[in-house]
Design a protein that fits this description.
single chain, about 100 residues, mainly alpha, 2 helices, elongated
């Protein structure tokens, strides 16, 4: 009795496994049928990304140039401030007077 039950369960599960494999393969083939549209969509997306990257490279180059200019301006400003501080400290010493008489 148990032998028949075990054998029928084995057959049932083997059939079930093969059926799942068949369903999975049929889905794979269906996805290949629509793949030409997918390839065209992917190709257009890649072209868009390429043009975006080219634009970003130009923007980065512009930003790099702007950073160099800004760095030079900051250096010049620091130099000017340093000279002003040096000139301000080279004058005669300050004398403090009391405001209370």
């Amino acid at each position: 009795m148990y032998k028949v039950l075990v054998n029928s369960l084995i057959v049932f599960f083997v059939v079930l496994i093969f059926y799942q494999i068949y369903l999975n393969n049929s889905r794979v083939f269906e996805s290949f049928e629509g793949s030409s549209d997918s390839v065209m969509i992917l190709n257009s997306q890649i072209k868009d990304v390429k043009s975006d990257i080219t634009t970003m490279k130009k923007d980065i180059a512009d930003l790099k140039d702007n950073v160099v200019v800004l760095n030079n301006q900051v250096k010049a400003m620091n130099s000017k401030n340093s000279e002003d501080v040096k000139n301000a400290t080279q004058g005669p010493p300050l004398t403090l007077t009391s405001a209370v008489s």
